[in-house]
Amino acid sequence: MSAGRRILLVDDETGIVDTLRILLRGEDYDVVAALSGREAIEMLPEASPDIVLTDIRMPGVTGLEVMAKAHEIDPETAVILMTAQASLQTAVQAVNEGAYYYLQKPFANEELLAICRRAAEARELRVENKALKKEIRRQSAPRRERPTGKNRSFIEVLKLAETVAPTESTVLITGESGSGKEVLARYIHGLSGRAESSFFSLNCGALPEGLLESELFGHVKGSFTGAISDKIGLFEAANGGTLFLDEIGEMTAATQVRLLRALQEREVIPVGSTEVRKIDVRILAATNSDLNEKIRTGSFRSDVYYRLNVIALHLPPLRERKDDIPILARLFLDSMGEQEGERVLREDALDVLCAYDWPGNVRELENALERAVVVASGSEILVEHLPEVVRATDAKPLVTNEPPPNPSMEVIERAYIEFVLTAEGGNKSKAAEVLGIDPSTLYRKLNRYGIEV
Question: Domain 407-449 belongs to what topology?
């Protein structure tokens, strides 16, 4: 069965349904039928039709209501409306509300088949066009918005993120505070089919339980003190887009139960209401906590964890990707330079940055450089411009940038550089990574020691 060939046939007259079913199946269409609008609406989610062929006037639920529900589930569904009582007004209304074609009974079999054929082709073109735009976005976005870094572990995380981004899978991002979890979440959203829709972010640890539930699920007027009007929650506001839940491990047990319903049933109930509201949102979650330990102690539900942990991405801390520090530092300084003027980071200051362990990760590095830019009186950022806690570190780079204090140290340093270069097959960039120095520093040392690669 080729694409665009599944038809949901809806009419309250059994004779018409039987006749059209035989006609359409004879043209190799996959036909499912409903004898009422209500039955058709119940069948829509599972049937997933490419075309809906429905009578307009039916007892109870009309063909226009069937069309609205079909488009709510899949906007690309082609809907052909049939009626024995055609009028210009109803035809205009049908087309304005999204009908592909408006057909008056009685009609010739050839006319119906031609319309169904064109509807199937039009749907297929729309689906292919949407997929093409999605692929173009996926391929162009990494070059434009890809998080910065060259560390191997970090690159592996990015590659996995790029693989899962076009899917609808829920993703759980783990990593220490400040390691860039929200940056990665926004990157995934930008590569997804929901990129043109909204991205919403909420820190679950920043709000008390009552307010968090209101923000997530919404509330109705009068549901609690201060609820002076109805409020739509983020799950509804993010319909068609992405909702990023940061610090998910701080969510209380009661809120976890409501979250589980949203994840399983794709529906929410606002605080103080009994009305069930369907949602269409992709969930990305993040935590700096050990959720397995929280499950062991009973503070986090295992069923919620398994619903969230469909795809797991772990961001390494900055101390494990120090080869990215020069790149990130340059990125932050270039960004700040747009407002503060260009700044140059001296090599000894860069060495201090590379020696520090950065418990606050990328966010702490950015804050340290912002302080340095403010403190520096000139265009050059020196060691003394860096925060004291960064300067006070006892760690030293593997190869120093200052001239060795005596000939014996010089001999040792030269020998070690030659050893690393040999081990890395003469690759200077990789050798610099192993030595813990900037490539430009390595080049100067090669020239000074007369080392030929």
Answer: Arc Repressor Mutant, subunit A (1.10.10)
Which three-class secondary structure state does DSSP give residue 104?
strand
Read off the pLDDT of residues 431-449 as tens digits, 9 standing for 90 and up: 877 777 777 678 778 877 7
Domain extent listing, the chain: 6-128, 146-316, 319-391, 407-449
CB 190, CB 240: distance < 8 Å: no
Under DSSP, is residue 289 helix (H, G, I), strand (E, B) or coil? coil
φ, ψ at 103 (rounded to 5°): -115, 130
The stretch 348-363 carries a mean pLDDT of 93
Pick the CATH number of 146-316 from 3.50.50.60, 3.40.50.300, 3.40.190.10, 3.30.70.20: 3.40.50.300
Residues 197-208 pLDDT 10s: 899 999 998 888
Topology alike, domains 146-316 and 407-449: no
pLDDT tens track for 240-258: 999 999 999 999 999 999 9
Distances (CA, A) of 202 to 118, 136, 215, 238, 245: 45, 29, 9, 12, 5
SS3 for 146? Answer: coil
Cis bond leading into 49, ω under 30°? no
Write the DSSP assignment of 51-96 as a string of letters.
EEEEES--SSS-HHHHHHHHHHH-TT-EEEEEESS--HHHHHHHHH
Q: What separation in angstroms does the CA of 360 have from each of 9, 252, 288, 356, 363?
A: 60, 26, 12, 11, 6
The rounded distance, in Å, linking the Cα atoms of 219 and 227 is: 8
